[in-house]
Amino acid sequence: MKIKNKLEFDCTGDELTFPTVDINDVPEVGDEIWVNEKQNLTGEALMPDLRLIKYENGIITSIEQLDPTSSKLIHFPIKPETTLRCSKGNKIEIFAMKDSAYKVNNKVLVNGKGNILGNFKVGNILMLINKGTITYISVPKSSKTNSRFTFKRK
Questions:
Q1: Is residue 145 part of a domain?
Q2: In sequence order, which residues have a C-beta less than 8 Å from that of residue 73 and are 6 or more positions away?
Q3: 107 pLDDT band (50/70/90 cuts)?
Q4: Which of 47, 73, 79, 146 has most Cβ atoms within 10 angstroms of its Cβ?
């Protein structure tokens, strides 16, 4: 079985390659990491889902899931991927990869705070948020039917 390298981009746009991690797996402590195709580097990278990956000499030494209100975020030029306004006027900032904002476990701020508990409705989407994390999401199925095709019995 051939491994396809896992490739991700951090919040600053740096390209992170994990040469020993399959494309469908998640990087872990002890895995090799290249930054912008450079090997054996030491540093840290903040991912769009707020995982802080620290590495030394090209090897991941720790992975920490940060809260959106963490003081560690001030060291990174980060902004939410999606900002929404609820029907009641609350501002929800979702920290996630592009095209994946509406997923359980994404980190969020509600009106700039991460310790909020409640149900929030944005259009037809209902989200349950608990302490800065989406814990439940309901996206209604489209009510439109495809009427282009008509099936007739013979």
A1: no
A2: 46, 50, 66
A3: confident
A4: 47
Helical H segments across the chain, by residue range: none
Residue 51: which domain range?
5-65
Buried b (16+ CB within 10 A) or exposed e, 105-121: ebbbbbeeebebeeebe
- Terminal Cα distance for the chain, rounded: 49
Cβ atoms of 54 and 66 closer than 8 Å = no
Which residues make beta-bridge pairs with 95?
A: 107
Residues whose CB falls within 8 Å of the CB of residue 7, separated by 6 or more in sequence, listed in order: 15, 16, 17, 18, 23
Structural tokens at position 36: 């912008």
Quick: pLDDT tens for 118-151. 999 888 888 999 888 889 998 777 655 444 434 3
> What's the whole-number average pLDDT of the chain?
80
Indicate if 44 and 94 belong to the same structural domain.
no
Q: In angstroms, rounded to a whole number, what is the distance separating the alpha carbons of residues 32 and 137?
A: 34
Report if pTM > 0.70: no
| Domain-located, residue 150 | no
Which SS3 state, helix, strand or coil, does residue 95 take?
strand
Please state the rounded mean pLDDT for residues 54-77.
85
